[in-house]
Amino acid sequence: MLPTVAFESRLHFKELDVDSIESLIERAGDIFYKPHKSDFYKVIYVRSGSATFYIDFVRYEISSGKILYISKEPVYWFEKIKDLKGTAILFSADLIYQLNNLFMPYLIWDLNGCKWWNSIKTLIELILVEYKSKEPDSIQVQEYLLNSLLMYLKRSQVATDITNQHDYQLFFRFRDFVEKLYKEKKLISDYSALLAISERNLHRITLKFAGKSPGKIIEERVILEAKRLLSYTKLRNKEVSEQLGFNDDSYFIKFFRKHVQMTPKAFQSQLQEVSSNSEEKGYAEYLS
Predict the structure, then answer these.
(1) Which run of H or E residues covers position 138?
(2) Does residue 104 have a pLDDT over 70?
């Protein structure tokens, strides 16, 4: 079963934890390098050094001047870390306003050259100062600072013209609907109706912000969950099919094979083979 790391603040606040990346890695121990989920949100600012890591079967790199955001949904783990230093902000959803409208499940910002970089860096430093403060209103100040930080990060990735903002909000509403409803609704028409826009307009919007069709985004979300269930649970193909809303497990097998180029059983067999040799190979070699 896939481990889930629970939120645990070291100080007197339950909704927020701020630490150096170095200390976070030490506190996390071996779990940092193994596939896992967490029940909290993370903003990691890299001041120096670099690292490679995996989020939902995709390999990424992060280095100086970059910020990594990971929500509660993705499965992730770090592969290699080289002199990584910076600040990690861990927080619960209770501290955030309209979080679902801000970001996707995970994002990486390269803030080198960003015109709001000084403001973003200052906010991170102020959050750390307030976290260590014993002032009675410190938690409220942290809440405002954290939301300001997230809004600056949002601003750094979106153009400011009104048309773009409107399309941007529609895109993230679509992603939010997909995240909540992909097991029950798999047709583009379902989502265009929920957004009160035409299928053609939805297609235009997803191409603009994701470079892919709405149908592709829906299919990728279904496949991602299928991979998670096949990788980190002991469910059989029929049970996975049922959890994903397929009425016929033979259709699920065809759907999976079309997108992964192998059957669910073959996918599980490969993972089991890798797992049995994890001491020597690990997930990284399999996924590379």
Answers:
(1) helix 138-157
(2) no
